[in-house]
Amino acid sequence: MTRRLQTEILVIGGGATGVGIAWDAALRGFDVILVEKRDLTHGTTGRYHGLLHSGGRYVVKDPQSARECIAENRILRRTHPHCIEDTGGFFVVTPEDEGEYPDRFVQACAETGVPCEEIALREAFRREPLLNRRISRVFEVPDGAADSFLATHVTAQAARQAGARILTYHEVTGLLLRGPEGAREVVGARVEDLAGGETLEIHATMTINATGAWAGQIARMAGLTVEVIPGKGVMVAMNHRLVNTVINRCKMPADGDILVPIHTVSVIGTTDVRVPDPEHYGIEPWEVALMLAEGDKLVPGLSRARAVRAWAGVRPLYQEGYTGASREATRQFTLLDHARRDGVQGLLTIIGGKWTTFRLMAEKTVDKACEYLGTRQPCQTATTQVPGAEQGHYWLGHRLHEVEEHELHGDLVCECELVTRAMLENAVYRNPTLTLDDLRRDLRLGMGPCQGGFCTYRAVGILHEMRERAGEAGGEVDRSDWEVAYMQSPAHNRSLPPPSSLPLALSSPNLLLRDFLQERWKGVRPILWGRQLKQEMLDSLIYLSLMNVDHLPDAGLTSPMTAFYEQDAGDVGETEAGV
Amino acid sequence: MREIPDLLVIGAGLSGLMAAYEAAEAGLRVKVIAKGLGSMHWSAGTVDVLGYAAGDKAVSMPLQELEGLQAVAPHHPYVVAGAEAVTEALSRFVALAKELGLPYEGAEEPGRNLWLPSPVGAARPVYLAPQGQRYGDLALAEPIVVVGFEGLRDFYPWVIAENLRKQGHRARGTVLPFALLSERRDANTVQLAQELDELKRVVTLARALKEVVEPGERVGLPALVGLDRHGRAMEVLQEELGTRVFEIPTLPPSVPGMRLYRALRSDLEGRGVEVEIGMEAVGYEAKEENGGFRRLLWVETATSARPLKHRARAFLLATGGLLGGGFDSNHEGRVWERVFDLPLAMPQNREDWFRPKFLDPAGHPVFQGGVSVDREFRPVSPEGKRLFANLWAAGNGLRDCDGIRERSREGIAIVTGIAAARSILVALRREKHVH
Predict the structure, then answer these.
(1) Fewer Cβ atoms within 10 Å of its own Cβ: the N or the C terminal residue of chain A?
(2) A571 pLDDT exceeds 60?
(3) What's the domain range around A559?
(4) For residue A428, what pLDDT is reported?
């Protein structure tokens, strides 16, 4: 049975850009449906280091990007303050970076309007005592750290409040085409509901391809060629905050030249390697080694600190006709109007750019859609706050403060990241939870030093218990007062009686366990040595020796994510994938 | 000046303590130093000897597998010790545990593995179970009621029961109020176990259990039924309920593991064995001796800002491997033994450390390497040459075993601890005879 839905705008892709488009279009009064094949932020949005650009990084190389970044930086601080930590940023001149670049940098900042002030070394070292003492100059810029998971979720919430429908775990399997070649028109998409097993036909006046690194695959469904340059970036999360300010090298952007303090960790990034496929790529040992070696130049001793995780994201770079290295490709975004470009009506592709400019990309895209659909209202996203903005900027101590203030120690499920049982329960009520990885993105479950050693079991036990007790209380409790914007707040979440039914699409505790253990393994494997290796062995002791998880029933069950977790993305040189 | 001990044991895990016991029993002066408490505090508190053989084959008679082990892992500690020593060491442990008032039992049919419910309801292969876990035996026919406590974050009765049912057992789950255990909401399992050392609380719990247990059911509880008065608490519960009661291990910290550790340690101290925790061995001194190998003079620790020399006639390294902290490793792919820098049979290249799947039945090579020893449990070079005249090694830091994967951690600890101690006894006696 195929269900048919009708909408004005169909957005494909649940990353920052797609969700931003849904929000923008819904605010302008359009009927909007967004489909995402996994959970929100599964793609590149959920796999970057979390930098809110000041623009400083691009002032010399890509001044247009720099101008966009600083403008958007100022807007997002107003619209999404609780998703941003106001860390500030330093551009530092290490002995390797001397020469003419620093002076060019200062001048280019002035030209592009990126606020930049040289500060005394003594002041810089007072604020960041672990910085390399051989640094000779320090410039301060308004960089920040952004929680791209939370930002996407609250933007989606804002879109829903404006009437948009957001469908996660809905994968596009084909575009609906009409008309003969030469006068072709895209009129929607065929979509598989991976959780519910249903097939949908979503008919739309305008379809927007906001799938980032996957944009070429969607375009191909309409017979179009969009050459994305997938630039893989590897990042390594170091345990603790080695710095509290974003640290950039003052030189042309290169590998391993940025250290971003975000939540409980510091992320060193990144590499930039062109890969053939956004879905299949490994983390090579040389990439991890390079991150550590470069990190030592910013914070000496970084390579000997404890690394908790490595991951890679794929930049959706786009440059018409470009064939060079991905590091040199432009960071600007491109909007492809396929009616003009290819003579195919009803389809726009938005590609390139970066998280910091997602709102602007959405605005330009919806402006273009308006040319075809007729303008309703001007863009409002630059002046509209998303839910939860009243919390002000994020600050690191907020969870601990709330746990202590409300004496919630006994309710902690994840002691590393201070996740309470009620936070977990409420996140599950909110939308389909296919894997614990979904809850990780919402709550930071399993992201701390033990990498799920303790909370995986607890979360599985709690989810199973919720299913077991659903309907027990009889009456339905009103859960509408619970807000996505407060999902990370221990104090704002309270345990509610079990509901009559759960939106749990997948309920085998054994599959949840296996999936999450493998998902965590994939990202720790490239950085397992020293204390983290010892930790991993304790986790093995818990899940093999104590629990015997590898001999549980339902061994054959898989989720839509199982293959992805098992795919050898954490590869350190082996070629046994699939064995 | 104090007398120099005959044996210095480095490491206070199960292998170190078993070796200390064996040596002290035979009349040696023994001292134990350790950085921390050993991994008993993390384990289920059972004695697992061999649960899965090569190819992930479930093992029902562990001692009968030893021959097969020889073919696939010729340096496995059980193979080094020999079948007879394995059997004897396990009997020795059973006798000792009984003496300690913490009896361990095997299956009805001697030599067979027990299958006990894990904290997610999988069947764990266990050779010897503490009495408190014995009645979890899945070969028994009585239906099981798994009883948890509302909000206890380390124990989930329904998931255990559901998985047991999926494996053909009759089981159900239920919960009791947390307040029966403690007024403190943030108490961990060890603190809760201490609460149940109080008789009044056990009686109250028994009364509450009566309300939820159906006739004919045996009762599975989280392993927190008393710490120091565990035996009494279990007796009271079984008497009041008139049915079998058993514990299911929980996430660490492990109460059953701690019971064993505390019983062993206090027994050793009763025998005059000094056990010093917080003493991390950081170096050693040795002198060249005739015959080409070196004799250890002392092991050095660095505690409270000053070096301390620990002299002894014989030294036993029982610091464990990567888990116990006996080995360290770095991002360049080097793994090393931390006190003597003993050569390790171990892939020294990170690309060869792991397999892509966390639960790969073949395990991960880095967890399988370790110290090479000869038949007397003395560390040897890759060429098989003895390295020190008076150093022995025991426990899960030995090569060619994967205690976690095989479910053999405690078996390896007990067997090698006792075997090494015996070898030390023979050597010291021989020395006395010569001098």
Answers:
(1) N
(2) no
(3) 397-566
(4) 84
